[in-house]
Amino acid sequence: MDSAEKYFLDNRFSEIVKRMENTWAAAAVRAEQEKQQEAEQPTMEQRLENAKKHVEATLEKRGYDHAGIKEEHWDFIIQLASERLVKASLGETISVGEITNEHIGFILVGEPMAGKTFLMRLLAVIKAIPSPIGEATLKNDFQTGGMERMFSTYPDLRNRDFSLDDLGALDEVKSYGNGGLIKSILFERYEHWQAGQSCTTFISTNLEGYNDLKESYGIQIANRLANMCAIILVQGKNKGVSVNKRFFMAEKQDRPK
In the prediction, which pLDDT does 252 show? Predict the structure, then answer.
């Protein structure tokens, strides 16, 4: 190897080493930047706390009076709504176990004008739960167009998150064979829920608890609902209902898209 070739190779090697050093330095800078960005991201606890403040502030702003709900039940509703908002904001990045109430819904039971539907609508406004659909609406769709039309209009009814308002307000109508329409829907939803699908159920009803559910729909449905949902008694007359009765027409921009 002559001196010219050696000089060329030495220079070439030096250039390679320099490029590698620059690459390593750039990688180290990127790693440090990513580390800093990661450190600036809120923790799961902080995300949940921020969501909780948002839920509580919204309900307070709209005048919802939760005096008729036991404190531990109210805390459950706030926690559930907060966790669902966090999960929605993170998409599929959330780990199993980080959300304690995942796939658990609720049944708001109690007398008329206690604020059950009002609470569900407020939670839907902040997109913590789906917008509630009345039982009468489902039955009307079924009676005019059959199961195909009903499931076409409400594709989430079978196996996705769904809010059912005013359960038990009307007499059952027949669907599959001798089975009632609402019973058939709840049976099917339970099967999907038990299989681990994201099929959370939220219900309001003027029935007053587990025994009324059992009497109206049978022990099988009552037990399935008790497994899928926390049964929450809402007592008294909610003063926020009369104060906010025009809220959902006056502020359409806040409604879920």
Answer: 41
